[in-house]
Amino acid sequence: MSSFIAKKIKKTYAGKIALSEFSLEMNRGDFISIVGESGSGKSTLLRIMAGLEVQDSGQVFLENEEILNPKKKLVPGYDEVKLIHQDYHLFPNSTVSENIRRPLLQYDKNYAKAREEKLLEQFGLKELQGRFPRQLSGGQQQKVAIAAALAIEPEVLLLDEPFSSLDTIQKHQLIDELGDLFKQWKTTVVFVTHDLDDALRLTDNLIILKKGKVVQKGNSFELCTHPQSQYVARLFSPINPIPGQKDAYLRPNEVKLRSKGGLLGHVVDLRFLVHYNLLQIKLKESNKIWEVDDPHRKYQVGDRVYVQWEEEKVMLLPS
Ligand SMILES: Nc1ncnc2c1ncn2[C@@H]1O[C@H](COP(=O)(O)OP(=O)(O)OP(=O)(O)O)[C@@H](O)[C@H]1O
């Protein structure tokens, strides 16, 4: 039996569709990442799921109870369903401990103290408990904000790119740590992001959103190897159109570089990346620019090179 359900959620702003019949069913402790470009409706969806935004139609349920929107509920939102976004608000004149304790003010004192201690411990914040937010790094501040949001033990956590202001190393470390905690606690987590790498860090269970519509669902392997559209394929890597073949594309790592045979081109740009060089190759006949991986770092700008590929690597992708 699913415990968190969104049923045919639709939302328009001034007649423009932001979400179109979005449905989702999750069991307790499931993680899902929803990935989509800016404006695809991710934040709108999470706000509706948290009971903070009025939808045009459709319903959200937690354990068979309907999540009521602000039109139907005097005080919007629920303790059981917590939305965390980038603009987290810590109280600047309260310490780490006080920030975490604030949501627990109305709870039994002993319970509140025990909960605060547990969160400080689990988030590795014990040594920082007496500091004020201005004395913390961005990553530490975000940890405190998330710990505070978890103080009242929500069943569902909705994460709206809360890590986007962190550098990649901090971000990945925080996502890994949180992922472990959420698993321990069996929290149901919906993470929305435009960044596929971040999404995959937390879970392999993906929904791809475009202009308010689900365009594909599945795990990363399925989506990477069998994308059903250019939009989904591009989330994983750039794609190169094959001249003269409608909707036929190749990924940069599937193109072979040879000194003869295939399509002739010239290297017009080279980027040194950690594991390989990324080349831009201008194809002679079509003038198209392809992005191609050069794992052996063999080619230089100006080199003549032939590109080849295996037919089975060609992806047919309607726009
Ligand atoms: N309050 C609003 N009034 C009017 N239009 C809105 C409002 N909020 C969102 N929209 C529009 O709805 C669409 C979806 O917006 P939403 O913020 O949900 O997308 P998103 O995927 O979260 O984008 P981003 O990744 O940039 O945060 C966009 O076209 C946006 O302009």
Automatic annotation (TrEMBL):
From which lineage does this chain's organism come? Bacteria, Pseudomonadati, Bacteroidota, Cytophagia, Cytophagales
Which residues does UniProt call coiled coil? none
GO function terms (MF aspect)? ATP binding; ATP hydrolysis activity; transmembrane transporter activity
Keyword field contains S-adenosyl-L-methionine? no
Q: Which domain of life is it from?
A: Bacteria
SMART domains the record matches? AAA
Please provide, in alphabetical order, the Gene Ontology terms of the cellular component aspect for this entry.
ATP-binding cassette (ABC) transporter complex
**Which organism is the protein's source?**
Algoriphagus faecimaris
Record-given protein name: Iron(III) transport system ATP-binding protein
Start and end residues of each ABC transporter domain: 4-236
SUPFAM superfamilies, alphabetized: MOP-like, P-loop containing nucleoside triphosphate hydrolases
Q: Which UniProt keywords apply?
A: ATP-binding, Nucleotide-binding, Transport
